[in-house]
Amino acid sequence: MNYYRPFCVLLVSAVLLSCKQENSRNAEENAATSEIAPATESQMASSSAAVESKNPDRKFIRTADLKFKVKNVAQSTYSIENTVSRFNGFVTSTELRSIVNNTTTTKVSSDSLIETTRFNVENAMIIRVPNTALDTTLKTIARQIDYLDYRIIKADDVSLQLLSNQLSQKRNAANQQRVTQAIQNRGKKLGETLDAEDRLHESQTESDDAQLSSRALNDQVSYSTVSLYLYQKEAVRHEKIANPENEKFRTGLGIRFADGLRNGWYMLESLLVFLSNLWTLFVIAIVGWLLYRKFKKPSV
């Protein structure tokens, strides 16, 4: 018995050491997971492209495109709409719909059926929020995300394009002033005056186009556009409905017999009308038969 005691002690020590190492390894994995999870969640929405630039000379058009899964599309839609309103934005488009994948019916009694419908709920939204609130809006929307498919954020620098439009407006303004003075100085020279007025009109048109382009760019700079596509896992709906093949819903024998007599009479009327349209054929057949009898040679 004394010979086995050292082996038992060694065996128990090995088991205890193994359990301790396993617990230590699980604790390290849990700690690593807890450290990674917040970073992943924050990366879902936050991006340097979504943060307003502190350089006043830079003008960016920021856009975002997200597709993600949520627990409930309808509830998430209402929450996102409230978030947009809270940050002084607005919704330009929302298309909340249910798509039926399959519908089956199961008979549960002589007069009842269970209709099972499998469907998906989705919503495609386009929202616009102030560029200063884009990052905050995306972080708030990220709370609705159950699974992120993709997130695309872009920041297009349009500073040079705005500067080009501004310089174009200045050139056109100076050109318009010179053309106007030239028209006034030419007096009664009609041909030259008309050419100058045509050039003035073209210059004004170019100036208006540049001004409209600048306003459109400034609007896109001031308000960022975010495209969202929300979906949820397939839902199942069960509904109890009446069995249309139930005997209670069949027409009575007397009514069906009366309908049969009436339909037969209608068929007879249709046949008589059809035959009346063929009276010429009957006349030709009778005349032909009479002629045949008249000119038929008697048999020897």
Automatic annotation (TrEMBL):
Polar residues bias: start-end ranges: 40-50
Keywords: Membrane, Transmembrane, Transmembrane helix
A Pfam family: DUF4349
Keyword Aminoacyl-tRNA synthetase: no
Superkingdom, taxonomy of origin: Bacteria
InterPro entries: DUF4349
Spans annotated as Disordered: 29-53
Regions that span the bilayer: 271-292
DUF4349 domain mapped to chain residues: 58-293
Keyword Flavoprotein: no
Listed name of the protein: DUF4349 domain-containing protein
